[in-house]
Amino acid sequence: MSTPVRTAPPVSATAADPDAAVVALDGVGKTFANGTAALADVQLEVAPGELVSFVGPSGCGKSTVFRLIAGLADPTRGTVSVMGTSPQRARRDGSVAYVFQDPTLLPWASVRDNVALPLRLRGDGRRERAAAADRALELVGLDGHERDLPRQLSGGMRMRVSIARALVSRPRLLLMDEPFGALDEITRQALQGELLRIWRQADDMTVLFVTHNVFEAVYLSTRIAVMAPRPGRIAAALTVAEPYPREAAFRTSPQFSAAVAEVGAALHASALPAGASAPATEADRVQ
Ligand SMILES: Nc1ncnc2c1ncn2[C@@H]1O[C@H](COP(=O)(O)OP(=O)(O)OP(=O)(O)O)[C@@H](O)[C@H]1O
After folding, report:
1. Given CA atoms 39, 42, 48, 51 in this order, what sign does their dihedral have?
2. Distance 25 CA to ligand 1 centre (A)
3. What does the pLDDT read at residue 126?
4. Mutation pick for ligand 1 pocket among 32, 34, 76 (CB with most ligand atoms within 8 Å)
5. Distance from Cα 36 to the centre of ligand 1, integer Å
6. Ligand 1 pocket, CB under 6 A
7. Helices 111-121 and 155-167, interaxial angle, to 10°?
8. Whose CA is nearest to atom 26 of ligand 1?
9. ABC transporter domain location, by residue (predicted)?
10. Predicted ipTM?
């Protein structure tokens, strides 16, 4: 049986046309004022419609990469472009949306008003906002809860509201920073399935997803960027070849286990000091 994960060429080489990349990082470094080198020489090109996960140990720079792409910080070296323009401009155009681990909902506002907030901030009319919010809520399976307050919802439902709020402006790029990290396993798996359904329905929406969970990365992604620390960099880029739709049965398949093992090995190798070789794998020993 062929392994479902294959090591891709350098991430920068995978997008067919660099000008068409949704996200392009070229030689990006980020050193903070206190001297911490958070990122060094990061190359990344993401094509429209990809779902790319970033995995790596704490402190390897995953959130810093996202902050640069979101235009919330500037690189100290190299260039970051989002849909052919600066991250700040893409953000102002409303082409980029975010979902974080904490849903950060307004506690006094209804579910509908929370979801409609980005449209309100950009000045859309009341009726238009309500209609778009209700469509987004339907997409995440929360129709019927439009008038609820956040405190009346479970953690998983609050996360659905946060996703609906991100989708309401129909972004072309969705940045998700450990969105399901605080949820129980059952809810987490349900939301992973929902995310794939929404992503496949949305026309060419690109998703970048940070997670500590290798199982989650394999289940969701077209590609997985394995990051290494000190300084943060992309140590490996793996393509998950399993076609979509990915049924729940994929999670218990030999292909899934093989993919998880391969990402685990890449994570392990990336944690070794430069020049050191990884210990032999089980597969190496039996050959
Ligand atoms: N504003 C800052 N000033 C100084 N150092 C920072 C700042 N923000 C992040 N860092 C450092 O940069 C490195 C990368 O941090 P970052 O938060 O991007 O890592 P991460 O991979 O997202 O970690 P985690 O998985 O724990 O969220 C870390 O060493 C962190 O301490």
Report:
1. negative
2. 18
3. 92
4. 32
5. 9
6. 32, 34, 36, 38, 56, 58-64, 232
7. 30
8. 58
9. 23-256
10. 0.97
Q: How far apart are CA 43 and CA 257, in angstroms?
A: 28
Atom 17 (ligand 1): residue with closest C-alpha? 63
pLDDT under 70: residue ranges of the chain: 1-19, 272-287
- What distance in angstroms lies between residue 67's CA and the mean position of ligand 1's atoms? 11
pLDDT tens digit sequence for 51-100: 999 999 999 999 999 999 999 999 999 999 999 999 999 988 888 999 98
Q: Which protein residue's CA is at the shortest distance from atom 1 of ligand 1?
A: 32
Cβ pair 95, 174 in contact under 8 A: no
Q: What is the Cα–Cα distance from 161 to 144, expressed in whole angstroms?
A: 12
| Domain spans, the chain | 5-93+174-181+208-286, 96-170
Q: How many Å separate Cα 219 from the centre of its chain?
A: 13
Closest residue (by CA) to atom 29 of ligand 1? Answer: 59
Give the integer Cα–Cα distance in Å for 231 and 151: 41
Tens of pLDDT, residue by residue over 276-286, are 554 444 333 32
| Separation of CA 212 and ligand 1 centre (Å) | 14
How far apart CA 221 and CA 196 sit, in angstroms, is 9
Q: Which CATH superfamily is domain 5-93+174-181+208-286 in?
A: P-loop containing nucleotide triphosphate hydrolases (3.40.50.300)
**Torsion angle (degrees, nearest 10) of CA 92, 97, 100, 105:** 80
